[in-house]
C-alpha cells in the first residue's frame, strides 16, 4: 500500500542506509551524516519529545538556517504526528513573536543562546531549546538526543493519516503579517510523488541547498531528495554559495533568481579582466549565448556553439562545480536572458511557479516542454483556469487545507468549485505554457486611467546586465518612474573610467546614468507611450530581506520600499 504520510514515505526509500543523507561544513571541512544516523537520531528525539508532552497535533517551531538537525527534528515530529512550524530565520523579533503565538507553538528550537534569551524575555513559548550545545548544556538538542538514546524503549510511531497536518508554512507576506498555511501529510506526499515524473534523478546525484527549508518549494524538494537517497549539502551562507558549489560539485539544486543573476554577472565581469586574444574569445562566446534558441539552431550556429563550448562554456560550468545537470528555479520572475544564458552553456534552468498554498502549479521540464518567459506546463494533476480578470485559479491534490485560525480568509480564497485564488495574473502561451504577468493587487492605475503591471516591466529591466534590481512606481501619478539598483561590479569591470569608484560615486556618475537611460530606452520600446518609464533614480543599496524590502522568496515588498524611498520618489514627480 502506498505511503500516505511523510514518515512512511521517507522510510520507503530503497538505498543503503549507510549512504550519506546530509552534508555540512564544520571548522572548514565538509562532513556528512548517514541515513542510518539520521533515522536513529530522529527515533531518539521523538522518544524524548513524547516524554515532554509532544503528541499528535502539537505545534513545535524551529528558527534556524538549513542544517541536518532541522531534518532530525522534522522527522521526529512527523513520527509523532506533531506539526512542524519552520520560521524564516531572518525575520525580526516581532515577526518571531507573532509567528510563534499565532500558530500556538508549545516548544521552540532556535540556533543559539542570543535568540533564546530574547524570546524568553518576551515570554514566548513554554520552553525553548537550542540546536547547538549551550553554555549550561541544558535545553539543547544534544542534551535531548543523549536523553532519548538512554531511554529503554523508543516511542512507537503514531498512526498518521493523509488528512493530518504535517506543517504550517508562514507565507512570505508581501504586505502585512504572515499567514499560517496549513499543509497536510497527504498534500506534501502527493507533491513528492508527482515530482518523480519531472526529472530523472537518483542516489548518484548530489544536491545543494541554500533556499530556506521553511519555504514550501525547498521543503518538498528536501523530502524528494531523501526518498531518492540523495545527499543534500547545506551551504554555509548565501555569500558562499558559489564557493561551496566548487567544493561540493552538486548535480542539482533549487536556484533563486537573484543567485542566477549574480553568477551571470560575475562571469560577465570576468570577461572584462581577460586581456588579449583570450578576452576576445571569451566575449565572443558570451555574445553567442544571446542567440541561443529552443526552437532549433542553424548549422553555422551549432558549429560556433561547439567551439565556444570547448573553449569557454566548459570552464564556465566549472564555476558551479562542473557537474550541474540542471537547475530548478522559482520564487520570483527570472529574466529570459538569464534562462537563455544558462541553457546556452548547457546548464538548463527549468523555471517553475508555485505558492506556499499550492506547492508546484507549473514547471518547465524536458518531455512536457520548455519555453523561455513562461513557467511551463501544468504540474501533475493540477488544474488551472483564468477568471475574467486573468487571475490564475488553481485546484490540485497538492493544495493546503486552509489558513490557520482564519476561517473567513480560507473561505474567501476558494471559489464554489474548490479553485484557489492565487492572486497572480497569467495567460496561456500556445495553449500549453503558463506565463505570469504579475500580481493582481500590484496592478496600479496612473492618472490617465491606464492600468500598469509593474512586474512585467521590472522583469525586462532586470534582464539588463547593467541592472541588478528595480521597482516600477506610478500609482495615481502622471507617469511611470523607476528606482534602479545598478549592477555595480559589472559596471566597474566593463567601463575603465568607473573601475575605482564606490557604489555611491557610480550612482552619481553621468556615464552610469547614461548607460541606465539607454537600458530604459530599450525596455520602453516594448510598450506604448503611457506605459513607458519617464524618469528614474539610482539607489546605492540593493533591496534585501534583512531590511524588510524582500520576502524570503525574493519578492518585492512594494509598500515597504515605497515608504523607505518616498522622498526620492516624490522628487521624480517634481516639475
Give your account of this protein's structure.
The chain has 575 residues and is an alpha/beta fold. The protein contains 20 helices and 24 strands. The strands form 6 sheets. An 8-stranded mixed beta sheet has the order 2-1-10-9-11-12-13-14. Strands 4-3-5-6 form a 4-stranded parallel beta sheet, with helices on both faces. Strands 15-16-18-19 form a 4-stranded antiparallel beta sheet. Strand 12, helix 13 and strand 13 form a beta-alpha-beta unit. Helix 11 crosses helix 12. The protein is globular and about 70 Å long.
How does the SSE layout of this entry go?
Elements (H helix, E strand, L loop, with lengths): L5 H6 L8 E7 L2 E6 H17 L7 E5 L4 H13 L2 E5 L5 H10 L4 E4 L2 H9 L5 E4 L10 H10 L14 E6 L9 E5 H11 L10 E4 L6 H12 L3 E4 L6 H8 L3 E4 L1 H15 L4 H14 L9 H21 L6 E4 L6 H9 L4 E7 L3 E5 L19 E4 L4 E5 L6 E2 L3 H6 L7 E10 L3 E7 L4 E2 L5 E2 L1 H9 L4 E7 L6 E7 L1 H7 L8 H6 L1 H15 L8 E6 L19 H7 L1 H6 L4
Parallel strand pairs: 1-10, 3-4, 3-5, 5-6, 9-10, 9-11, 11-12, 12-13, 23-24
Antiparallel strand pairs: 1-2, 7-8, 8-17, 13-14, 15-16, 16-18, 18-19, 20-21, 22-23
Helix pairs in contact: 2-3, 2-6, 7-8, 10-16, 11-12
Structural descriptors:
4-stranded parallel sheet, alpha/beta, single chain, globular, 20 helices, 575 residues, 8-stranded mixed sheet
Report the principal-axis shape.
Answer: globular
Q: What proportion of the residues is helical, as a percent range? A: 25-40%
Give the C-alpha Rg: 24 Å
H/I helix tally: 20
What portion of residues belong to β-strands? 15-25%
Total E-strand runs: 24
Give the integer mean of the pLDDT values.
91
Terminal-residue CA separation: 71 Å
Q: What characterizes the major β-sheet?
A: 8 strands, mixed
Q: pLDDT below 50 for ≥5 consecutive residues: which ranges?
A: none
SS content category: alpha/beta
Question: In what order do the strands lie side by side in the largest sheet?
Answer: 2-1-10-9-11-12-13-14
Amino acid at each position: 500500500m502506498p505511503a500516505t504520510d511523510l514518515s512512511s514515505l521517507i522510510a520507503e526509500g530503497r538505498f543503503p542506509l549507510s549512504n550519506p543523507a546530509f552534508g555540512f561544513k564544520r571548522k572548514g571541512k565538509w562532513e556528512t551524516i548517514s541515513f542510518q544516523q539520521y533515522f536513529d537520531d530522529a527515533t531518539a528525539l521523538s522518544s524524548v519529545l513524547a516524554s515532554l508532552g509532544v503528541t499528535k497535533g502539537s505545534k513545535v517551531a524551529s528558527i534556524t538556517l538549513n542544517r541536518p538537525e532541522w531534518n532530525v527534528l522534522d522527522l521526529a515530529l512527523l513520527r509523532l504526528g506533531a506539526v512542524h512550524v519552520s520560521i524564516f530565520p531572518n525575520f525580526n523579533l516581532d515577526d518571531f513573536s507573532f509567528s510563534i503565538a499565532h500558530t500556538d507553538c508549545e516548544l521552540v528550537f532556535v540556533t543559539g543562546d542570543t535568540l533564546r534569551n530574547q524570546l524568553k524575555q518576551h515570554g514566548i513559548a513554554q520552553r525553548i531549546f537550542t540546536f547547538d550545545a549551550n553554555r549550561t548544556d541544558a535545553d539543547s538538542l544534544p542534551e535531548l538526543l543523549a536523553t532519548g538514546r538512554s531511554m529503554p524503549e523508543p516511542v512507537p510511531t503514531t498512526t498518521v493519516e493523509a488528512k493530518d497536518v504535517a506543517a504550517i508554512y508562514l507565507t512570505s507576506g508581501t504586505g502585512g503579517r504572515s499567514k499560517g498555511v496549513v499543509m497536510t501529510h497527504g498534500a506534501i506526499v502527493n507533491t513528492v510523488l508527482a515530482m518523480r515524473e519531472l526529472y530523472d534523478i537518483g542516489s548518484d546525484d548530489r544536491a545543494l541547498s541554500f533556499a530556506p527549508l521553511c519555504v514550501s518549494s525547498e521543503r518538498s524538494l528536501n523530502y524528494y531528495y531523501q526518498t531518492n537517497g540523495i545527499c543534500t549539502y547545506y551551504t554555509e551562507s548565501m555569500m558562499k554559495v558559489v564557493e561551496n558549489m566548487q567544493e561540493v560539485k552538486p548535480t542539482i539544486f533549487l536556484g533563486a533568481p537573484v543567485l542566477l543573476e549574480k553568477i551571470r554577472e560575475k562571469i560577465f565581469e570576468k570577461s572584462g579582466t581577460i586581456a588579449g586574444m583570450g578576452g576576445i574569445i571569451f566575449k565572443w562566446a558570451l555574445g553567442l549565448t544571446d542567440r541561443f534558441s529552443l526552437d532549433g539552431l542553424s548549422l553555422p550556429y551549432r558549429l560556433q556553439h561547439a567551439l565556444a563550448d570547448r573553449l569557454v562554456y566548459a570552464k564556465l560550468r566549472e564555476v558551479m562545480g562542473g557537474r550541474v545537470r540542471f537547475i530548478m528555479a522559482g520564487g520570483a520572475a527570472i529574466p529570459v536572458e538569464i534562462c537563455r544564458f544558462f541553457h546556452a552553456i548547457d546548464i538548463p534552468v527549468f523555471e517553475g511557479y508555485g505558492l506556499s498554498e499550492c506547492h508546484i502549479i507549473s514547471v518547465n521540464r524536458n518531455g512536457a516542454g520548455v519555453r523561455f518567459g513562461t513557467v511551463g506546463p501544468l504540474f501533475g494533476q493540477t488544474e488551472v483556469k483564468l477568471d475574467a480578470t486573468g487571475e490564475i485559479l488553481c485546484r490540485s491534490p497538492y493544495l493546503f487545507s486552509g489558513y490557520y485560525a482564519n476561517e473567513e480568509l480560507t473561505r474567501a480564497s476558494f471559489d464554489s468549485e474548490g479553485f484557489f485564488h492565487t492572486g497572480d495574473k497569467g495567460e496561456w502561451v500556445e495553449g500549453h505554457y503558463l506565463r505570469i504577468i504579475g500580481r493582481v493587487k500590484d496592478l496600479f492605475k496612473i492618472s490617465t486611467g491606464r492600468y500598469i503591471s509593474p512586474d512585467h516591466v521590472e522583469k525586462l529591466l532586470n534582464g539588463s546586465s547593467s541592472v541588478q534590481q528595480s521597482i516600477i512606481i506610478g500609482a495615481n501619478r502622471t507617469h511611470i518612474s523607476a528606482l534602479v539598483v545598478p549592477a555595480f561590479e559589472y559596471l566597474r569591470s566593463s567601463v575603465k573610467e568607473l573601475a575605482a569608484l564606490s557604489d555611491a560615486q557610480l550612482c552619481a556618475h553621468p556615464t552610469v546614468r547614461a548607460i541606465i537611460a539607454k537600458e530604459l530606452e530599450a525596455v520602453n520600446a516594448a510598450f506604448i507611450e503611457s506605459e513607458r518609464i519617464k524618469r528614474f533614480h539610482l539607489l546605492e543599496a540593493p533591496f534585501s530581506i534583512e531590511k524588510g524590502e524582500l520576502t524570503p522568496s525574493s519578492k518585492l515588498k512594494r509598500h515597504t520600499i515605497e515608504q523607505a524611498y518616498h522622498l526620492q520618489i516624490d522628487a521624480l514627480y517634481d516639475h
